[in-house]
DNA recombination-mediator protein A
Amino acid sequence: MSQSLDLPKIDELAQELATIQQTGSKRIALLGSRHVPITHQHLIEMMSYALVLSGNRLLTSGATGTNAAAIRGAMRADPNLLTVILPQSLDRQPLESRKQLEEVMHLVEKPENNGLSLAEASAICNAEIVSRCQQLICFAFHDSVTLLKTCQEAEEQRKVVTLFYFD
């Protein structure tokens, strides 16, 4: 009796290994939930600080929680290596996020998505972020539908995906 195993193809493994072993700078996307305890935010901030300090370019979005922590860390390390892509225009972002976002040098607004729901605009935004990165680091809950879909799409594009669950 023979069974078919769902194993990755050799070229996929080689591409992932090459990305992991790459010693130069990478384009790393860091995304995650808005609902993050402050202790976790500190860890995310330290991670983004270290990634940027190592010369990596960091991409994220502008929401509170995970993304705000990633922005804080990257801004401390080297603001020039941070790109923030918003799902909608800056004036549609929460008031508590705007002050931080106004300090970001490489800020991409998407006013054409202002007519969409935040969930729809976020899915489009996440897809653009993934298209620009080599690796995705994501912090989510098991019921974070948009984020989990983003991780699946990144894997389908053969990006290296590291997914951390809060629950």
